[in-house]
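Hey L., structure's done. Input below.
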Amino acid sequence: MEGWVDEKVISKLTVFLLFSFWSYFAIAKYQVCAITINSSDEIEVFKEQLGTEDFDFVELVPLSVEDSRPNNIHWFTNACNQGYSCDILVISGHFGGLFFGEKHNYILPVDTMERHSCSNSCSGVLANVKEVFLFGCYTLANKSSRQRTPEQHVNVLVNEYHYARDMAETVVASIYLPFSSSFENQMRLIFPDQSSIYGFTELSPLGKDMRWPLRNYFEEVKKHYGSYKSFLDQKRPQAKNPLIYSTIRGAVSEVKGVGPNSNQFPHFQKMCHLYEQGVDQVSGMKMVNELMASGDAPQAYQAIKYFMSEKGPFTGESLSLFNKIKSNASFKNEFHVLYDQIGHRLPYVRIQFLNFLNYFEWVSGSFYERELKSNTLKMVSQPTSEGYDFAAALVYDEKIPVQTMGLSTDDFSPDFYQNIWSALILETLNVRDYLVHRRLMNTCLAKIREDPVVCYQVLKSLGHLKVNDSLVVNKMVEFLDIPHSGLIYYSIYGLAYSGVQADFVHVGIAQHFNHSDKWIRLQSIRAVGLLRSENPQVNKALVEVVQSSEDEEIIYEGLHSLHYMTPSVDAVRQVIFDRKLYEHPNEKIKALARSF
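Output:
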């Protein structure tokens, strides 16, 4: 019996050891993490060349439509929390201070990675990676002399490589101007000291053009080391990789990570403190003051700017520290010198910096408004997509208070009003001058036959600009009676968002409650709700729609709009009771019905 027990124990031990042996080799596989924001060509070559025996592959970007909101950066935080352990990180995207693409709306700004690196809140992705491949232009650009002027460099990026103006200027500023870190240093500080970072100091090949050089690179690695796993196993942290240069070629570069706590860049440790989520106002302002006093503020410009926007306005001791910085003539002079060095070559960067100066009240109000207006008009004077991108970046990214510019019809030539970009630029800059609105309507009328899309955009923009000029509003109401579905739809949209409170407008919209086009019906129903119409005729007509329609969307939108209007509650309740909407299988309809 004892021998039998020993044999059983030995058998279990053998199984355990075998399991542990195979578990070790399963765990020992390298994990390749991909951030595919644009081209998938590069990661496909990695999969093809490395296989799955020694490598696991994970894609960090969730390519689902519902998550792809404009400028979505939340996906990266979600990826940080998934428990990955990345040994190799492959990032593919266009680059201009952030990674972006053409296929969806995901972006990855460098300062987002910086913040996560500083707070150690994404260690699985950033902190232990051995190799980082940055497939994008200028990902390792440094501050060095260039053959082109800054203006020429921006024009090349915008006209030949289709960069948005703000991103082109961000790239050029990181190369030419003496403030903020270079992209090379930013990348080095994000990743740990055992990592090799591969990227490009200039323009990089397109994804499809990277396939052959990458295959060549992996073949050379296999020739010298037997396999890529063997290469990684033998690799010494600080050893250079000459095979990258001999196979990829061009502007490819390799640098070594140093991590956020490196003594090579002492100012970065201070910058990190400003990026920490838990930093309080007082300790943050003390750090800003220390950076200013040590002469490191130009390098820490972006971090200071981030802290001020996230933690302000300041009170108590932090306000005293802020006032101390504000009143320091030496600090003010240093940043005025930097502002002068920008000149008028890079208007977007100039406005960014101007906003920074204004925050500390280092420029007068009149100077701020004058500079803001002149630099903005310089870029939007022509109605182009570039002008619109510039305006949108100022308003949505930089949160520039465009209303301080007081833009009016005098600031735009008659030739400006000609296409959809005219309307989009004026809408983005929130130009409320009624004469501008009239000129926009004239543009719509001029283009109504040859290019009705221009008219559609004009009507939308007029709504967002809260048009209230009687001549323009009357013309929009006239469009409601024209047998043209597009004009009817966008006129309703514009009138709804304008907030016009006039019975003839509300009645004109309500006449389309039973239009043959369902989308027009829905738009008109939503519009009277947005306008919170109190017109009895309109209210009664909408109750009748809810009573007679079999379309669930129409019923739901009807009840939803009635919530914001002033109908006879008894009449609405009677319809709900007669149709038993409080028991409707559609949960949204049932919930609305029970709320009356």
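Confidence is low (pLDDT under 50) at residues 1-26. Residues 210 and 223 are 20 Å apart (CA to CA).

-- N.
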